[in-house]
Q: What sequence folds into this?
């Protein structure tokens, strides 16, 4: 029996895209997610890609969202 735990989460769809300034039809680059995860809370990072905002303030919530997005990219169907 497969438990569909991800469907039960109350995710705010598109909020990470909105926070990073990347449109919904574009994918978030993995290099940007890695940079957000490795930064400390309160730091201001520069975006290594040409998508979205140039400077991003890293918060704890943004770190959690980036970590979830990175983990969900690794899930195979």
A:
């Amino acid at each position: 029996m497969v438990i569909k735990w991800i469907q039960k989460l109350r995710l705010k769809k598109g909020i990470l895209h909105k926070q990073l300034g990347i449109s919904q039809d574009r994918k978030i680059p993995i290099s940007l997610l890695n940079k957000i995860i490795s930064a400390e809370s309160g730091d201001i990072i520069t975006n290594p890609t040409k998508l979205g905002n140039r400077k991003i303030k890293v918060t704890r919530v943004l770190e959690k969202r980036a970590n979830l997005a990175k983990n969900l990219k690794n899930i195979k169907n």
Notes: Residues 60-73 form the longest helix (14 residues).
